[in-house]
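Entry for the shared binder. Reason: the reviewer on the internal report wants the predicted structure included alongside the sequence.
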Amino acid sequence: MNHGVSGRFVQTLSATDRISRRKELGLPAGKLLLLLVGSIEPRKGHDILLQAVSLLPDSLREKVHIVFLGSDKNEDRSNQRWLDYEIEKSGLHDSVTHFEYQSSELFYKLCDIFVLPSWLEGFPVVTIEAMLSGNLCIRSDAEGAREQITDGATGFIFPKGDSRSLSRILEKVICDDRLRIDISAAGQKYAMKHFTADVMAENTIAVYRKTIQS
């Protein structure tokens, strides 16, 4: 049984509040924000997202800004140095903002596209939180991906480590506002139906009832 997510993630900010909160955090108001929530470590695939964005045509790359939310858990900060190096290597240092880990709820509401390019996962709750928040979700095909997303219908899935495939998906959804909005809405509807805490509680109770009756 998977963990349910609070329905509060569905609550949205007004357009005015969204712009205001972005400004407070130093995030550009007029760009599509790509969000990755996860600890700073190579298995999370921050470098894959950076490579994918660097492969976009200049005209599209200028339309997006990357937001990393997460911390390096190593005492020697080696993973942070790795990320700093990858950002510099990508040439995107002016298009990336990194926040130390904190409550992610506001960041989902401020961003547009959630990307999880992990090499290894279980059933990451962050994807469900992002879907409920109305983000378009793009995941690598690590564990749990196809339980959460129907590719091309409620989000997108790409092969692990394949930055070119991810870049092609990003190009498609950056260029097509209607596609991005429609799939975001479908993903949110699917998550509300299957993955909220209330739904998961009902499913758990149903399992217990069935066990007792048998």
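Summary line for the report: The longest strand covers residues 32-37.
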